[in-house]
Amino acid sequence: MLRHLFGRNLHTMTKSTWDTDALPEGDDKVVAVRQMFDTIAGRYDMVNRIMTFRLDVRWRRKAVRLLALPAGSRVLDLASGTGDLCIDLAKAGYKPLSVDLSFGMLAADRSGAPRTQADILRMPFPDASVDGVTCGFALRNLVDLPAFFNELGRVVRPGGRIALLDVGIPKNRFVRFGHGIYFGKVVPKIGGLLSDKAAYRYLPKSVAYLPPANEMVKALVAAGFADGSHQLLSGGITQLLLGTRS
Fold it and tell me: What is the pTM assigned to this prediction?
């Protein structure tokens, strides 16, 4: 069952909360992100496939494969969107639970997994209650990344695993230059034609929220994932954080 855990009315907010040059912070960011994803939910998957040339499918499947948990494991997919990772998790023999801030995304979820609407910085799950966690391309949308890692450390049992995807910044300067043009200029045009122009202007800018990889790994280790590690995928345009709960 979908659960609405937030008191603020989306309809009181305007697009100016996320259609601006300045990136939103704090509570404004929470509301802006939720409203934005409610807006683009209907065509989110189609735009993703087009703008990544279906590489997003490969990235998610690799994250699920590297989760490396026994069949039947209970896995939370956080910021689950329309359920892509939940589908891959189920195909791998896991029992996924779809969790997202956006009601619009959950309403468009086609995975068949149980769904709940929640702020993933304050998850409504007991301590050490799940075997694993996945999260696809949402780290930069969180207000407090270390707090999120601590929350992962709380809900994941000892020996449980996490696999967290997000966009990256290529190390090779030529790849970085080309990707910067594509992600910063072409993606907003594709998004504008097929979905919401303002949302796809925001998404490339939101990379600025992400700290360097070494800082994220350090925060993961501090949260209880002693073997926390970082990988760059597809030349660095995507990054993957992995860890085992100590």
Answer: 0.89
